[in-house]
Amino acid sequence: xxxxxxxxLSAAFLFTATLTAQTNIxxxxxxxxxxxxxxxxxxxxxxxxxxxxxxxxxxxxALTGKESSLTIITSQPADSDLxxxxxxxxxxxxxxxxxxxxxxxxxxxxxxxxxxxxxxxKIFFEEADELAEDNNEAKSKFAATVYSRxxxxxxxxxxxxxxxxxxxxxxxxxxxxxxxYLLSAIRKDTTGITFNNLSYVFDTQSRKLSNGIALIPLxxxxxxxxxxxxxxxxxxxxxxxxxxxxxxxxxxIGFVLSQEQRENKTVTAFIKWILTKGQAFNHAAxxxxxxxxxxxxxxxxxxxxxxxxxx
Length: 311
Fold this sequence. Notes:
Layout: E1 2-7, E2 23-25, E3 28-30, H1 37-50, H2 58-62, E4 67-73, E5 87-101, H3 106-109, H4 117-126, H5 136-142, E6 145-148, H6 154-162, E7 173-174, H7 180-188, E8 192-197, H8 198-201, E9 213-215, H9 222-229, H10 233-242, E10 250-257, H11 259-262, H12 265-275, H13 292-310
Parallel strand pairs: 6-7, 6-8
Antiparallel strand pairs: 1-4, 2-3, 4-10, 5-8, 5-9, 5-10
Helix pairs in contact: 12-13
């Protein structure tokens, strides 16, 4: 889990994403999920537009000069990872897709049916040369170079979970810093491959693939393959929201709230807005909306918290 510090001032509602102390999950120190920041910033900006009085509320004035920390989580923890007073409110989802340099020779060698989950697992967790030919010359020319983050980052944990592996089994050259640097690495290496989230793989302005990046063809249903073969962020988000697509991990993101935060009307009102009007901004930032069942469940529970704070 990653600490997101929201500095609340009486004159303005300011969002400051700082790299604070790392949090321990299941014995692992989980580093930041910086890729979520643009979405959270957008929610805050839009909420402030609709609620100008929110900036001058008594609750916010009482917090002037203090840091009200909200913890954001990007993979589902075990019950033992949370304290008795903590609860998670999920607010969106993200997807991880396999990508490569658009000039990578392996794109010509992948079968029309695309790579299977078994093949991807071999590439990223077992055998980095799964796509290589039998002879050494071909291996040297066509072997894929895997790039990955540290084992304790959210993307590595989510990827390992999807493939039924352990984060420490993730292969590849380790790239420090934000997930976006994985794309920088494969742009410089025509044999490079990696997994990354849609908000980085696609340009959120043009809605097309980021410069120099290509999606790795996947073994999926015919209609799904047609959508993925003509990469478009909105079509991809719609596809993932309306169907389960093999080989593309989808994870929820959410706020971990303490009892004090759940009893704070300012916090709960903001999160309720995210669950209603705020979902409309998920796509713009490259994130999926919650599925209907999860959204209904989260709304019901946040409404209960609002009622309890009013009574």
